[in-house]
């Protein structure tokens, strides 16, 4: 799936890819997307443990790299009517 995303990758592992949101709503707006098709948070299973470990490691690395720990940041996953696409993804956002 990562080859379908025409964006500069900030972080990539075997299970996920992170890149700047193409239409950001915040000064720092990064999308973190699993490479495996997962529709939403409700579909996460035991098999997704490697992704979840990578997710939090990725967030930790990006927060450190972008110095977001000083100013604050949020990690958001939308669901239901708030989720625009049928693929689980997380928004790492911050005001700068």
Would you mind describing this structure in some detail?
Helices cover 22% and strands 25% of the residues. With 96 residues, the chain is α+β, with helices and mostly antiparallel strands. Strands 1-2-3-5-4 form a five-stranded antiparallel sheet, covered by helices on one side.
Poorly predicted residue ranges: none
Helix fraction bin: 10-25%
Q: If you compute it from the alpha carbons, what radius of gyration comes out, rounded to the nearest whole angstrom?
A: 13 Å
Mean pLDDT: 93
For the largest sheet, list the strands in their spatial order. 1-2-3-5-4
**Helix and strand string, N-terminal first?**
EEEHHEE
Proportion of residues in β-strands:
25-35%
What are the key terms here?
96 residues; alpha+beta; 5-stranded antiparallel sheet
What is this structure, in a nutshell?
The protein has 96 residues and is an alpha+beta fold. The protein contains 2 helices and 5 strands, in the order E-E-E-H-H-E-E.
Helices and strands in order, then pairings?
Layout: E1 9-12, E2 16-20, E3 28-34, H1 49-65, H2 68-71, E4 74-76, E5 90-94
Antiparallel strand pairs: 1-2, 2-3, 3-5, 4-5
């Amino acid at each position: 799936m990562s080859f379908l995303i025409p964006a500069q990758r900030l972080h990539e592992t075997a299970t996920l890819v992170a890149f700047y949101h193409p239409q950001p709503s915040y000064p720092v707006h990064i999308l973190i997307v699993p490479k495996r098709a997962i529709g939403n948070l409700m579909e996460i299973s035991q098999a997704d443990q490697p992704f979840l470990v990578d997710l939090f490691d990725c967030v930790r690395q990006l927060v450190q790299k972008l110095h977001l720990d000083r100013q604050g940041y949020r990690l958001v996953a939308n669901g239901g009517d708030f989720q625009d696409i049928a693929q689980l993804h997380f928004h790492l956002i911050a005001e700068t």
